[in-house]
C-alpha cells in the first residue's frame, strides 16, 4: 500500500497515541480507564489539524480498528470521506441556494452573506456554519463552474481587414460651450495588425456617433470582411446591419456576457487609459481632445513596436496593403438614413417637420427616402428600386401661391388687387418661373 507523506504522519501519530493501550484488555477496568484518562487529558500536536486533544470515542475507535485488522499499521491511515466535497451541515439544495445568493450579491462579505441567508431563510438560525465552511462551499461551486468554461484560444486574423473589432469606452469630461460634459470613445481595431482604423471621442454613445466613426474608418482603411461587436444598443441596429451589408461587410456579435472575444480592443482601451489620457494637456474642447488622440495614435501607437505582433502596427498593416478593398467613392450614400413615406395627392410629403414635393408620377405611392444625418435637405426618392432624383424642399407659404394646371378662380370686380396678383402668378407660371414678392 502506497502511503503519502501526510498519511504516514497521521498514521504514526495515531499509533503513538494508542500504543499504551495495545494489549491491555487483560488489565483491570480501573487501570485501563486510568490510561485512557491520561491520554485524552494530554495536549497533543496533531498533524494537519488545529485540534490539541483526542476524545475518548476517537481513541477507542482507533484501538478497535487497529485490533480488528490484526494490528495492521495501515489500518490507522485516514480514510477518504465518501461524502467528500459535500457539507455535513446543510443539504445540496441549500448549497445551491447559497451560491445563487452569492452571485446576486457578489460585493458583500461572507459574514454579510451568511446573515442575509438567514434573513431569507436559506439557512435556519438554529444551524451554525463557520466562515471556513461557507468559503469552501462557495469556492467549490465557483471552481466547478470554471472547469466547465468553454475552450477559448488565442487567435489572430490572417490578413489585414479580415476582421475588425469595435467597442466604446467612457472618456474624460471636456468643456462644451461652458458646460463640462462626459465623452465616449468609439474605436475600431484591425485584428491582424492591431492598427486603429479610426477612433474618436463623442458626446453621445449612440448609433449615429458609431456610424460616423465607422464611415471614417472605411474612408481611411478600406472595407473589412467582418466587423465584431458586442451586444450594446448602438451595435444592435438594423441601420448598421443594412449599411455594412451594402458594402459587403458582415457584422458578428459577441455572445452575451462573453467579452473575451473582444480582447484586443479592450487591451487597447487599457493602453489609452494609462498611456494617453493621463498626459493630455490644455483640453478646452472635444475637437482638441480628438486632435491630440489622433496625433498620439499616428505618431506613437502605430509606429512603436507592439509586444503581441513583435513589430509596429502600421508596418504589419501595410505589408499586405495590396489586398485591401478600398471604400466606394460614394461611401456617403451607404450611410444614409432610409425611411418610407406615402406621397400625398398634392405631391407633398413631410420629413422631420420639413415639407418636400415629389414628382407627379409618385402621387399616392409609398416610396423609400434616403438622406444623410447632417444633410436632411437633400433627400433622394426611390420607387421600385428606381431613383426619381431628389425631392424639392418647399416653403408652404410660397407653395400655396403656385398655380396648378387645373386651377381656376373667378374674381369679383372689387377684388382688383387679388386679380392683379393672380395675373402675375399665371404669367410667371407660364414662363416657367415661380412668382414671389
Number of helices: 14
At CATH's second level, what is the architecture of the largest domain? 2-Layer Sandwich
Largest sheet: 5 strands, mixed
- Considering DSSP H and I runs of 4 or more, what fraction of the residues is helical? 25-40%
What is the terminal separation in angstroms?
113 Å
DSSP summary, beta strand count: 12
3D structure, described in words:
- The protein is an alpha+beta fold and 437 residues long.
- It has four domains: 5-76; 92-147, no CATH class; 163-323, Nucleotidyltransferase, domain 5; 336-399, no CATH class.
- The protein contains 14 helices and twelve strands.
- It has helices at 5-18, 29-41, 56-68, 92-104, 110-119, 131-147, 207-221, 238-246, 263-276, 286-301, 313-319, 331-334, 396-399, 416-430, and strands at 163-176, 179-190, 196-202, 226-229, 250-253, 337-342, 348-351, 354-357, 366-372, 375-383, 386-390, 392-393.
- Strands 3-2-1-4-5 form a five-stranded mixed β-sheet, with helices on both faces. It has a four-stranded antiparallel β-sheet with strand order 6-9-10-11, with no helix packed on it. A three-stranded antiparallel β-sheet has the order 7-8-12, with no helix packed on it.
- Helix 4 (92-104) packs across helix 6.
- The radius of gyration is 40 Å and the shape is elongated.
- The protein starts with a helix and ends in a 7-residue tail after the last helix.
